[in-house]
Amino acid sequence: MDKENGLMKKGRLKKGLFIVFEGVDGSGKSTQVELLAKKLSRKGLDVLTLREPTQGKWGEKIRELSKCKDSITPEKELELFIKDRKENLRLNIKPALGSGKIVILDRYFYSTLAYQGARGIPLEKIRRLHQRFALRPDIVFILDVPVSLGLRRIKDRPVIYRLFEDREYLKKVREIFLQLDDPECVVLDGRRPAREISQEVWSILKKRFPVLSQA
Ligand code: ADP
Ligand code: TYD
Predict the structure, then answer these.
(1) Residue 152 in 3-state DSSP?
(2) Domain span at residue 190?
(3) Which ligand is nearest to the CA of 153?
(4) Is residue 58 part of a domain?
(5) Can you say how many angstroms the Cα of residue 181 is from the centroid of all Cα atoms in its chain?
(6) Rg for the chain (alpha carbons), in Å?
(7) What atom in ligand 2 is closest to the CA of residue 106?
(8) pLDDT digits over 145-187, tens only?
(9) Which bound ligand lies closest to the C-alpha atom of 32?
């Protein structure tokens, strides 16, 4: 291990790095996750990309229930997202960080604050429920786009999450994202071309985590 720059052999960092992308549907999260993962991998760093809701049993349950409106109460929704997140932390995120990988996660508890908060659950309650178990990311990029642009970008996508893609509802979701004042959150203008956003992401990461430029 090279103690000077925090890098271990084989592209692993001493303590791992936990990066999250957030934003309304169609804000460009998956695109940025992929661009960043490619960039870090090209540098020889060991990267794991994940998303929530996951492909696990709770994630599948969320997908199944959210197909039809009103089949699920906000409280039940909250409970399922939390179960899915706990499992993701235990099975995937913590082991990867523990072995020095860079974890890039598409949506995390900030989505619960925004989406379930917009369904009427008090934000303090959502925060309290996460306090004991939800590891804080090193950095969270919130990709901000007007809801109409996000929806236009995903109009051809099969509607799996009908419940979550209502315009007025998503406007509330966007507002909550923009009001988050957690120090790890960085809001980026998601209207720009994907390459330009990706360059900004990289320059912020290099500044905050100099170890990345040493890879
Ligand atoms: P999300 O994961 O936030 O729902 P995606 O990354 O899947 O968003 O992007 C949704 C659609 O918009 C995709 O077709 C993608 O190619 C396109 N897209 C992503 N980022 C941009 C961007 N910055 N400018 C224009 N189109 C984009
Ligand atoms: P996702 O598959 O990431 O959708 P997209 O690629 O369109 O952004 O997420 C599925 C939906 O689940 C999305 O509309 C947001 C919603 N969601 C919540 O309501 N609460 C949560 O905690 C999470 C993680 C997602």
Answers:
(1) helix
(2) 18-210
(3) 1
(4) yes
(5) 16
(6) 17
(7) 3
(8) 999 999 999 988 766 555 556 889 999 999 999 999 999 999 9
(9) 1
